[in-house]
Automatic annotation (TrEMBL):
Record carries keyword Signal: yes
A Pfam family of this chain: Phosphonate-bd
Keyword annotations: Signal
The protein, known as: Phosphonate ABC transporter substrate-binding protein
Species of the source: Jeongeupia chitinilytica
Keyword Lyase found: no
Domain of life: Bacteria
Family: Belongs to the phosphate/phosphite/phosphonate binding protein family.
Length: 314
C-alpha cells in the first residue's frame, strides 16, 4: 500500500490500457472501464481504455507509447517482447479459474462431415480465419490442423477472409464462408449471444490447450508503477474489502475470475509453432538451394534469439 500511496502523490500522467477486441470495440471499452477506474484509484492517476480489432494497430500504439499496458494474444505479445519494449507480468484466468483455451474450426451442420472430408475438396470451401499475427486465430490452426497434413490454407481454400472471432462466426452463420476459425473462450461467449446460430454449427477440429492471453506493460514505465500495476491485477477480485464487487466487474469485463502471475516464459509454446510453420512455408517457396539455406539460417537465428529473450530452451 505504501507504493500505491507514493504513486498517488507523485505520478499523474495518464496510463492507457489497450485491449485486443474479439467483439465490438465500444462494447469492450465499456466492459473494461470499471476495472480501469479501479486501477486509476489504486495508482492515483487517470487510466484510459482503448480497444482495437487489429493486432498491427495494437503493436503500433504500444511502440509509439500511446498504450502502456496491453491485453494481447500470445502472438502479438511475442512481437511486443521481441521489439524490446514490453514485458509480460500476468495472464488472464476465466470464470472457474480456467487459464487456457483451444483453437477451433467451426462448420455449419450441413458442412463437411469431418476433417478428412474437408481436405478431400480443394478449392471448394471458403475460410474465415484470424490475422496472421494471431496465435489462436491463425498460427495454431494453420500449423496444427493444416500444415501437419501438408496443406497451406491460402492455397487450399477457394477464398480466405480475415477477421476476429466474432467476425468469423458471423461470416459462417450468414453463409459467407464454410469454415470459421474461433477459440473455445470466444465460442462460449458467442453461444450466449447467438444461441440460435450456434445450434446450426459444430466443431470440426480443436487444438490442444494453450495458455490464455497475457498482460504486457512497457518496460520503460517507472519501476514503482510496474510493481503497483502488477500487484493491482494479481490481487484484483482476490483480496481486499471490495472482492465481491471486483469479481462482478471481472465477469462483465470478459467473464474472468482474475489474473495469474506470468512472465515472458509463457510465450515459449508459441515460438516453436512459429518456427515449424515458417519452415513448412519455406519448403513450399520457389527458391534456389542457396536462397533456401540462407532463409533457413535466418529463421533459426531469430528462433534462437527469441528463446534467449524468453528465458532459454527449458
Amino acid at each position: 500500500m505504501a507504493t500505491l500511496a507514493l504513486l498517488a502523490g507523485t505520478a499523474r500522467a495518464d496510463l492507457t490500457l489497450g485491449l485486443l477486441a474479439g467483439k465490438n470495440e465500444g462494447d469492450v471499452v465499456a466492459d473494461w472501464q470499471p476495472v480501469a477506474n479501479d486501477l486509476a484509484k489504486a495508482l492515483g492517476q487517470p487510466v484510459k481504455v482503448v480497444a482495437v480489432k487489429d493486432d498491427a494497430e495494437l503493436l503500433r500504439r504500444f511502440a509509439s507509447k500511446e498504450i502502456q499496458i496491453a491485453r494481447a494474444n500470445t502472438g502479438t505479445a511475442l512481437s511486443l517482447i521481441e521489439a524490446g519494449n514490453g514485458e509480460i507480468f500476468a495472464r488472464l484466468a476465466l470464470t472457474g479459474g480456467v487459464a487456457d483455451y483451444r483453437s477451433l474450426l467451426l462448420v455449419r451442420n450441413d458442412g463437411p462431415a469431418d476433417f478428412d472430408a474437408l481436405l478431400r475438396d480443394k478449392q471448394r470451401w471458403r475460410l474465415a480465419t484470424g490475422a496472421t499475427s494471431s496465435t489462436a486465430g491463425y498460427l495454431i490452426p494453420a500449423y496444427l490442423a493444416f500444415a501437419k497434413r501438408n496443406v497451406l490454407p491460402e492455397a487450399f481454400f477457394r477464398e480466405v477472409k480475415s477477421g476476429n472471432a466474432e467476425d468469423n462466426f458471423r461470416a459462417l452463420a450468414d453463409r459467407r464462408v464454410d469454415v470459421a476459425v474461433c477459440n473455445s473462450d470466444d465460442f462460449d461467449k458467442l453461444r450466449e449471444t447467438y444461441p440460435r446460430d450456434v445450434r446450426q454449427m459444430r466443431v470440426l477440429w480443436q487444438s490442444p490447450s494453450f495458455s490464455y492471453d497475457p498482460l504486457v506493460y512497457r518496460k520503460d514505465l517507472p519501476a514503482a508503477t510496474r510493481t503497483a500495476v502488477a500487484r493491482f491485477f494479481l490481487d484484483y477480485g482476490r483480496k481486499g474489502a471490495n472482492t465481491a464487487q471486483e469479481k462482478t466487474r471481472l465477469y462483465y469485463a470478459d467473464q474472468l475470475s482474475g489474473f495469474l502471475s506470468s512472465s515472458n516464459r509463457q510465450l515459449r509454446e508459441v515460438t516453436d509453432l512459429q518456427l515449424y510453420f515458417d519452415l513448412f512455408k519455406l519448403n513450399l517457396a520457389k527458391q534456389t538451394d542457396a536462397e533456401r539455406t540462407a532463409s533457413e539460417k535466418q529463421l533459426y537465428r531469430r528462433y534462437n534469439q527469441l528463446v534467449a529473450v524468453l528465458g532459454g530452451p527449458k
